[in-house]
Write a structure and sequence with these properties.
mainly alpha; globular; 5 helices; single chain; 0% strand
Length: 97
């Protein structure tokens, strides 16, 4: 057996088992999105973000800010939001937050 094979065998045998994935029990959601036109579509955002998280974003940043944020979620993070829903979400967020 070559030295490399012995090192590999030792590494496999001596390696500890992988730990089990961590699980977390999150507290129940207590916040809701603010009412307004388009809130029914903006609920799509809560698939990844809590309403609390959305409400902590900088206030009154305007349409350009929310357009950039929604496009980032779609293009970078692959949020499954179509262009019609994206427009409604941008309108809702810019008017409400």
């Amino acid at each position: 057996m070559t030295r490399f094979a012995v090192v590999c065998l030792f590494t496999v045998v001596a390696s500890p088992a992988l730990p089990a994935p961590a699980t977390y029990d999150l507290p129940p959601e207590t916040a809701t999105l603010r009412p307004g036109p388009g809130v029914e579509t903006a609920i799509l955002c809560t698939g990844c973000h809590s309403a609390d998280y959305i409400s902590t974003q900088p206030s009154k940043k305007g349409r350009a800010f929310w357009e950039a944020e929604v496009q980032k979620m779609i293009n970078v993070f692959k949020a499954p939001i179509n262009s019609a829903d994206a427009a409604v979400i941008v309108d809702y967020m810019s008017a409400t937050y």
